[in-house]
Amino acid sequence: MNKAKKLAKNDGVGLESKIGSGGGAFELTKNKVLVLLGVIAVLVLCGGVCYMQLRPRVVLEVTGTDADGSTTKSRVYMKETVYDIFQTEKQCNMYSQIYQQMYGKTYWEMEDVDGSGRDGATAAKKQVMDSVKQREILCMEAKKLNYSLSDEEKATVKENVKQAIDSLSDEQKKIDGMDEKSLTTAFEKNALAEKYRQVIISESGIDEEALKATVVKEDYRQYTMQYYMVSNKEGTGDEQTDVTPEKKQENLTNMQALKEKAATAEDFTKLVEDGDTTGISTYKEEDLLQKDMESSSFLTKKLRKKLIKMQNGEISDVIEGEDGYYLVKMVNNDDPAAYDEQCTKVVEDEESEKFKERYSQIAAGYTAEIQSYWKGRVHLGNYTTVAEAND
Question: What pTM did the predictor assign?
Fold first, then answer.
């Protein structure tokens, strides 16, 4: 009877059932909490991984002083250095094939490439950081002296960034640091550093005309010539021998025919067509300087002295050199190119020297600390040629 009353009071549900039902609800809530905690843990873990992968990486910290003498710090992030790495790798990769052929190693693997005992990769990495360090110090000093980029200079930077991005491969565009924002930061710093560099040079008091006067014009008189040749040698290296008399006569006949063709041709550079089987080389150029008249390896000294007497546009007879027959055209017997180039060089060399002197004084007022990420995580050689190399 009592049991029946209890059942009725509890709407026909026994106490055991209620306890069982309550326990099931507790278990269900507990599972939800565990799932939620698991989701939160995954999100935290993913967030941590993303932060570790995507957070800005400082590679250099430079400390100096403001105009008022207070301490100031500037940080260089990895993204700002990527285009510098790209330019360096591009340049060094041009030498890699040559090194591979000559030494059996790539440029990156070669040791002592700069006389320091470092391999190519380490030397290139130092070159990049030295450049970045100088750029940052110059920018800090320029800003302290209130130098900045004009709107026109910023517009030039914008155009340069666009051209740089357009020249990149699709894979290179995916590399962190090759985006427009990162390149703009690096390019603007380059522009400001170069602007201040020019200020330093202009204030150094270089007398360009006096420097140019040190170049002896006659020494740098340039004889610009074009020529064709056919070799009277066969084989290579120490095993090279003279061709047969019959072949030599054939070569002479072919060169004489070329001489006749040159007499009426409008373009001396196109006398030999692709697929020519006579063995005559395509046209080449020789820029002979007066100061090198004694030491040049082009033909013999006697023949060189004969050639420089030719008038502009004159074509020689077929000349027999030590290694074959030549047909030479004098393009310009007083070409100013070498002289102008040397004048530019002596001025630039002096500018570079004056800049180095002043920069060493400026740099003494700054402390530059290379950060651990650069030291341990950055490796040159394929950083900008393999997209996965910068993960």
Answer: 0.76
